[in-house]
Request: fold
Amino acid sequence: MSQEVVLFHSALGLRPAVREFADRLRDAGHTVHTPDSFDGEVFENLEEGTRRRDALGVPELMVRARAAVAGLPAQIVLAGFSMGTGAAEYLAATRPGTRAAILMHGALAPAAIGLEAWPRVPIQMHYALKDPLVDVDQVWALEAAARASGVLVEVHVYDGVGHLFEDAGSPNHDPAATQLMLKRVLAFLDSLDDESRS
Reply:
């Protein structure tokens, strides 16, 4: 069954790589929305993008994220790359009816977003081994909380690659890892129908 997915970009902005990943999900029959939190600005390096993120501030980014999903059905899948995982995770945990969360290159412990526990929302996480921009303690805390809620949980770790390895414009780009992550995301989206019947 087709899923409706909202895919939030990283601090590099809504770059071609985000649109291309979304297109691959569309090719598989899914409906995908790619909100632009940076008003069209894109960046070549994370330092510039992080300055833009910080200038906007987390509260404003969350306002924009909530606005991006306001008119959508309840049963959506929320996904994000790096910075975008914060919006995806928070909305997945607080928006009733959310089908699942897909977090690529980052995650927050439930306590970091004001949650005492993770709701019954399936979750899939992806990150590069030894990525200095990923706090693995936060990933593990979210994994533990999600498993405690009894939902489907998948965690995929990629060795020998760097942050945002799916971005063809990034020095960390790794086509093989990108294809593997895409394959796993598509399989996870397909599995949600089995999960809803269980």
